[in-house]
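SUBJECT: A protein chain and its fold
Encoding: whole-number codes for local backbone shapes
RECORD BEGINS BELOW THIS LINE
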Amino acid sequence: MSEDFMLDTDDLSKRMDGALANLRTEFASLRTGRASGSMLEPIMVDAYGSMTPINQVGTVNVPEPRMVTINVWDKGLVNKVEKAIRESGLGINPQLNGTIIMLPIPELNEERRRELTKVAGGYAEHARVAVRNVRRDGMEQIKRAKGDGMSEDDQKIWESEVQDLTNAHIKRIDEMLEHKQEEIMQV
């Protein structure tokens, strides 16, 4: 019966890769002193009775290295978009010009840079937890197979494979975090 057991390591790897992809998205939303349209992705606007991503209520552009603009399509939503940006915690003061909201990106001071590195560390820890949860699922599959007659040698081989996969993904998360923290602290 144990010869029939095949752990789907591709599935585990894909799920761990999903945690890495999510981390990349969260890191892209962190402000590093340069303007980026992706920094607005997590912001949701109360539009037409539901929470809507900001890029679905207007066009986000980066015309200059220190400026992001949002051309809001519906005049009635301009104030709601402005309010969502103010309450987002990005530390940006929106300026209105008709249906265009301009977001000048100020230089980051040392204190704000340190705060952002802590936020980045929190994002990385969430990704590590997600990877460890996938690892736990894989280990539980192995334990169930052992209960169904898998040999201890096979169990050790599969557990080692899952652990190696986990270690590789955790190492990649740590590398991404280190790179992002260097980018944030760069003056």
About this structure: DSSP finds four helices and six strands in the chain. The first helix runs from residue 9 to 29.
